[in-house]
Amino acid sequence: MKRALLLVTSLILMLGLFFGCLNLPVETEQGIKVDGILDEWVNLNEDAIGDGYWGAGNDIIKVGVSFDASFVYFAGDFKKEGFNNLIFLVDFSSLTGATSTVGHPWTRNYVFDSGDIDLVIETWGDGFAMWKVTQDGTFTEITSEATLAYTGNTADGAERFVEIAVPLSSLGITSTDNLQINYVTSITGGFDGTSQWLGDFAPDQDATSTDGSFTPAATITQFYQVP
Ligand SMILES: [Ca+2]
Ligand SMILES: [Ca+2]
Hints:
Elements: H1 2-21, H2 28-31, E1 45-46, E2 59-67, E3 71-79, E4 85-92, E5 110-112, E6 119-123, E7 128-133, E8 139-141, E9 147-152, E10 159-167, E11 181-191, E12 196-202, E13 213-214, E14 218-220, E15 224-226
Parallel strand pairs: 5-14
Antiparallel strand pairs: 1-2, 2-3, 3-10, 4-6, 4-11, 6-7, 7-8, 9-10, 11-12, 11-15, 12-13
The structure holds calcium ion (2 copies).
Residues 47-49, 51-52, 59-60, 200 line the site of one calcium ion.
């Protein structure tokens, strides 16, 4: 009897150890920790390395968007120089935004050929700015609603890792039933009055350039979709 009890106890202990040591996969929708470490992301989109117009120092490496019942999350693994930023142009299926960024306070000229732009985020690694965009093209800054964490090196051309959490309530989204998010990213420069300048796209677009200038606008035809 004593021997049987010992056996059962040992078995329970072993099972406990076995399951305790298992690294079960993290469900993205519940498991994102905004700490600037992207290890828990299971749906990052990988872009080609060094495929941009301005060399290896202005390059999108990985980007991702995910959401749960309360937040939409953004991830970026990228390199940039000077005043260039990683920009997210985001289309939520339940919102109706603008078809261009003509109202962007920092002068950007991107146009969607389908869908519309509801949210614009620009990050340089250790900081970011974010705007909600309405149908009439108005940009309203809502940076203070969101949280950013980063790791990596924010020197010119170095690799940085960024996570941003945006409360869905700050966008006026009250339900995630059937929510679909389309988005595109770029290492953006400015619009000089004739051309939009940019260093890299993810996903790649139908329009291409030899030097990163897109005239009269950078027209977006390809999107990442979530889910
Ligand atoms: Ca993380
Ligand atoms: Ca790239």
